[in-house]
Structures are given as C-alpha cells and as structure tokens.
Amino acid sequence: MTLRVRSKIWIENDAGELVIGTGRLRILESILELGSMNKAARRLKQPFRAVWGKIKATEKRCGFKIVERTGDGSRLTKEGLELLETYTRLRNRCKRYTDTQFEDLFLIDGVQPTPLEHEESDSGAL
Questions:
Q1: Please, what's the largest Cα pairwise distance for the chain?
Q2: Phi and psi angles of residue 66, each rounded to the nearest 5 degrees, phi first
Q3: Average pLDDT, the chain
Q4: Tens digits of residue pLDDT in 36-94
Q5: Is the Cβ–Cβ distance between 44 and 51 less than 8 Å?
Q6: What CATH number is associated with residue 54?
C-alpha cells in the first residue's frame, strides 16, 4: 500500500465565506487564458450563470472587482490577477511544505509504516 498526502487550501473572509479556492482558481485561470467568461464556463462544463455568480460573490467578499468585461470578452483586473497569482503561490508553498512534512513523518528510511505503526501527534492525541 502506498500512502500519499493531500490537502486543500482556500481563503475566506472574516464572515467565513469563500473568497478563493480550487474551483475559483480554475475559473480565473480559464478567463485569463481564454479571454472570455463564457468560454471559461464551457471549458469547465459549468453554466455561465454559475461562473458569473461565483465571480460576483468573490468580488463582493473581497471588496474589489476581479473580472471586467471587454468589447470582445472578459479579462482579469489588476487585482484579480494579483489574487490569482498570490493564491497560486500560497497553494504551491503549502503543497511543498506538506510534502516535506509527510516525507519527514511517514517515509522513514524509505519504508512506509503499516497502519498500526504511528507516532503521537504534536498535540499528544492520535
């Protein structure tokens, strides 16, 4: 049996409402690449209305516009691009850190522990 670590990182506002996570990351990346919210929705196999609603909710929750309409589609605003880039850097850092911690704790001398072998967590609980 091979073990691996998985984690999800998302950002919430003070009210606990989602600002950006994996789904919104994919939406913003698609808009950036395709230059269109409609094309992004098609690529992601989501209704345009759902994509538009997620963009509007994120804008409301973070307090600035992240997507603007152009004459021939949509594009990320400066703030939207910064949100995308910063969130991506955060995800990458967290993944690297998690991978390193997993290797340090679980891959002892290249041998993965059996489910019954374990070390107490930092809190002392299992």
A1: 61
A2: -115, -20
A3: 88
A4: 999 999 999 999 999 999 999 999 999 999 999 999 999 999 999 999 999 999 999 99
A5: yes
A6: 1.10.10.10
Q: What is the pLDDT of residue 115?
A: 52
pLDDT at 92: 95
Name 12's bridge partners.
18
The whole domain housing 77 covers 12-106
The token pair at 13 is: 């506002």
CA 31, CA 54: separation in Å to the nearest integer?
A: 13
The DSSP result for 69-88, as a single string, is: EETTEEEE-HHHHHHHHHHH
Residues contacting residue 99 through CB under 8 Å, at least 6 positions apart:
5
Q: Is the pTM of this model over 0.70?
A: yes
Residue in 39, 6, 38 with CA at minimum distance from that of residue 22 = 6
3-state DSSP assignment of residue 114: coil
Enclosing H/E stretch for 18 = strand 18-20
Tokens of 120: 């107490």
Domain tally for the chain?
1
Query: Do residues 48 and 37 make contact, with C-beta atoms less than 8 angstroms apart?
Result: yes
